[in-house]
Amino acid sequence: MTDDPPLRADAQQNRDKILAAAEAIFLERGATVSMNEVARHAGVGIGTLYRRFPTREDLLAAAYSARFVAVAEDMRLRAEGADALSTLRAYLEELVRHTTVYRGFAASLGIVLKTGTPGCVATSQVGQQLLQTAQSTGQVRVDITFADLVCVATAVSLAVEQDGIPQSGVAHLVGLFTDGIVVRPPERNRLPGAASG
Predict the structure, then answer these.
(1) Ranges for the HTH tetR-type domain (predicted)?
(2) pLDDT for 151-175, tens place per residue?
(3) Together in a domain, 72 and 94
């Protein structure tokens, strides 16, 4: 990812207005609100909005970047000297909790994380690092990918949003997944009563 050139003062002002409007309207009405509505709320033309943010995912990523930076910094601090699997589980829980701030955001999470904003890059990098650490310490199966983590975070976020799962249920749902990716001795994988062989 290359650094963008600095914006002119008027362009920066328009960008700031768009992001402020997007934050307000996404919090109030959800992430699926029309781009036209965001532009109207910001007091700019739709062409100006699309020049700055060509897709909805670009706008969501920019509006959410600071939150994702905070998630990444928090998880890096938590990871110092902590159990790798517990930290990975905490990362997933935090990703879900932050994804449900904007109603309707969960469906776009995978695309948003690939947009290259500082927050998306930081959150993805720390998630990959936590996963690699848990795998290198023999706690998590080596066939698990970061894309798997995003898929699970998306599914749990959608359950919270659409099925009315309370926030207190996030840890339980994340736990179901992390229990399934733990490396276990072969004898612990056998079903009760299964014949040895």
Answers:
(1) 12-71
(2) 999 999 998 888 777 777 888 889 8
(3) yes
